[in-house]
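Troubleshooting log. The previous structure file for this entry was overwritten by mistake, so regenerating from the original sequence record. Sequence copied from the archived sheet and checked twice against the printout by T.R.
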Amino acid sequence: MKNTLVAPTTKEAGWLFAAFFLFYFLFLGSHPLLLPDEGRYSEVAREMLASGDFITPRLNGSLFFHKPILFYWLQTIPISLFGINPWSLRIVPALLGVGGIVFQYWTCSLFLGRSIGLKSALILGTTPLYFGAAHYADMDLEVAVWLNACLLSLFVGIQHDKKSWLISAYIFGALAFLTKGLIGLAFPATIMGLWIVWTRQWTLIKKLQLPLGLALFFLITLPWLIVVSQRNPDFLHFFFYEQQFTRFAGAGFNNAVPWWFYIAITLGGFIPWTYFLLRHFKVLYRLESQQPTVLYLTIWALSVLIFFSIPQSKLVGYILPIFAPLAILTAVLIENIAVPEKIFRTILAMVAILALLFAGTLRYFPTKSLRSMRELVKALPQNIAPLSIVSYHTYIQDLPLYSQQTIRVVYHWQNIHGDNWSSELAYALAYDPAQNKRLIDDNTFWQLWRQKRPLYVFIQKKDLPDFTEKAGNFKQIAADKNTIVVTQSSSPN
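Regenerated output below.
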């Protein structure tokens, strides 16, 4: 093999961090929040700061046990420092994305040499789906970074017989658990277990520091689980059974797509590096000196692909943990087929330019986001009373976020079907009677509408005819192409 095992350097890691920090942050806040996820998860973090309750996640005041706690904790930091805006809300995924790139450079260099380590980091950082996820405020990139760090640390620890790297792996696995749940434990155990079985390296089991590592894993994960379940007795059943097991095995969720969905997403999301992987993948399995490493990375990639392809419900971001091993395998290929450095750098430059063009022009793309929500909220009077803002027959995910208060939502709460915003909010009705003030039906709303207390109602234009027929006279305060904001005729503007 042409690559010599040269160790990584802090200077090169620093330059890599600086370059990708600039690359990822340049247009980070240039486009509106993409709904529902960016509005939903950031609102949970905002409510933590507003209430001072950092244990029980809540969405618009409703219990929200769909995901663990770590992303919300991290998200409170930029909100408290920089306020609520698209740039600040994306700082966490962008920093994690850059950190994951540098970590891949460092760890990969330790078992494949600095040249391949650097190439793998550059490939990962310019992978379109990885780049896009770093500009999107949800948990998918975060859990991918923690899982990547865990699996890379495990391999470095095994290869170099370093206890410190193995302990780091358990810490990263715990952080992955606190981000997305059981995959933080299941993926590392499955991938490392399959690799040991396939290579018949049974003695490695003793080197994994299992007693100490698992003790550390549970020391990190159990405190929050214990406290949140004490405060919310139904938490463990909902989180583990309904969100982890039932969601994986069930078919009653949104986004049902064919089994081959993630194959297509992986091939498309890894462009242009897909070409090298498909064109020359046979070379990988002829590199005798690298067979244990290639096998580990292959098992890693296939485990992620197969696991997420099993459920009928699939979301694009779930597949992100596949790109770290694919980036390393591609770097090994490029090194061994002797792709000229000039061609490699040209591809990098072209991908970077296209990525920046995409990020810089995304604001002009049609999206589900209500682009003017910040402006619509600014049109409201100052210091309006709590629960005076109403979302009519829908839940606008960034409305509580920008108004910085929980809102009333009018809907037929007794007749909810499907896996959507209404089921997310309605879950709390059975456990928290106080939600009856926020989640109201039509009868309650029209009673409130006829009282003297002003209400500021956000209505999607498709629902305006129904509203107008029942409301009588009202005043329009603001509007955009999707939404109209109205109040009673007797209310002050």
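The chain has two domains: 10-28+90-364, 373-488. Archived copy saved in two places this time.
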